[in-house]
Amino acid sequence: MRVRLSLLLAAVVALPTVAAGFQAINRFEVYPVNKSGVFEVVNRHGSAPKDFWCGAGDYAIRVLRTSATQRVYLVQAVGPAVTVQGRKGVQFALNPPQGADTSTGYSVTVKKVGDNMPAHMAQNYCYDRIEDELWPF
């Protein structure tokens, strides 16, 4: 019995550790990408653009401690995630990407680099998902 327990413990210790990301209100994971402030929101099954923005706004406010009025910029459109293999991700930052059109539009998208909104507006999309889960009718 002791040998089995020792082997089990050794196997658990030998497993590669997975870096834990920040979990936004809507349970999307957010990971820092580089030291220049870029972070990536990684998708879950059935994700929509507002879900990525929720993760970005929540991360900006609760982790980066930015003001609610700070704009969050989309710096890399939806595509293969660089932080989690086999998933899709969208990269955001608090600074606008160089050369990108940062004029705001009327739709919520994760395909237009330079798209942006205040952190509080992005975080507010988190509550749409909660309402859908609580009241599915």
TrEMBL record:
| Endpoints of the signal sequence | 1-19
Record has Signal as a keyword:
yes
Determine the domain of life of the protein's source. Bacteria
Per UniProt, which keywords does this protein have? Signal
Recorded protein name is Uncharacterized protein
